[in-house]
Design goal:
single chain, mainly alpha, about 80% helix, 2 domains, MetI-like fold
């Protein structure tokens, strides 16, 4: 019964939205070419699946988002540790980071295309850039919030800096690091779509732009929905993995 209630609460808003969407689109008050009903969108899903566009575009988008997210998260955590634990690295990196952090990743789309061309490198670079600063700021602040008494006690017992980081600093900062990574998932797809719309030959962002050029709003909506499903699924998979790896993280919820 609990599972049935859970699925009902999950599906009810979606079904309600689809019904209202269908009624409004079929009412005659809108041009169906500009505002297609869900029935036509579902037909477009079938067509894109038959032609292989949807699966191929989604596969490339997932690959780019995954690689960029992994690189951005890794660099964000490493630089976060260095800037929080080392005065030298803090003074060396902090001015540059604070200068670059306010610049929107979308501002680098054209520059990335000039530097890396239309290949995969430009998309992965933009995703990595967008994820890095979100993860870095959370890692940096999380490490600074670790109780200094634990660190001092470890030093008194002869623990090395590597041991302190591994056994005290990272576990203490983990909640904020995870929060930064989950936020980074959204930034990954945001930067990915911008990069694919600006210069690509495959990918969901590219398909949105291409569908716009040939005036296929139904295909655009299909790709946008696919992006939403991929983003939400990525977040849930990440949360599930964190729950299994660190069962204490959610406090037993």
């Amino acid at each position: 019964m609990d599972r049935l209630k859970k699925w009902t609460l999950f599906l009810l808003p979606i079904i309600t939205l689809l019904v209202l969407w269908e009624i409004v689109a079929q009412s005659g008050g809108f041009n169906k070419s500009l505002f297609p009903p869900p029935s036509e969108v579902f037909t477009s899903i079938g067509e894109m699946l038959d032609k292989g566009y949807l699966i191929g575009d989604a596969g490339y988008s997932i690959m780019r988002a995954l690689v960029g997210f992994a690189l951005g998260s890794f660099l964000g955590i490493v630089i976060g540790i260095l800037t929080a634990r080392s005065t030298f690295f803090n003074r060396a990196f902090m001015p540059l980071i604070q200068l670059l952090r306010p610049i929107p990743p979308l501002a680098f789309v054209a520059l990335a295309l000039v530097w890396f061309g239309l290949g995969e490198a430009s998309k992965i670079f933009l995703v990595t850039w967008g994820v890095f600063f979100t993860v870095w700021i959370n890692a940096y602040l999380g490490i600074l919030k670790v109780d200094i008494n634990y660190i001092n006690a470890a030093k008194c017992l002869g623990a090395s800096e590597r041991t302190i980081v591994k056994e005290i600093v990272l576990p203490g900062a983990l909640p904020l690091i995870i929060a930064g990574m989950r936020t980074g998932i959204g930034f990954a797809f945001l930067c990915l779509v911008a990069a694919e719309m600006a210069g690509a030959y495959i990918g969901l962002g590219y398909r949105v732009e291409f569908s716009h050029l040939i005036f296929r709003v139904d295909n655009m909506i299909v790709c946008i929905i696919a992006l939403g499903i991929l983003g939400a699924s990525s977040d849930r998979i990440f949360a599930y993995a964190i729950e299994k790896l660190f069962p204490w993280y959610l406090g037993g919820r």
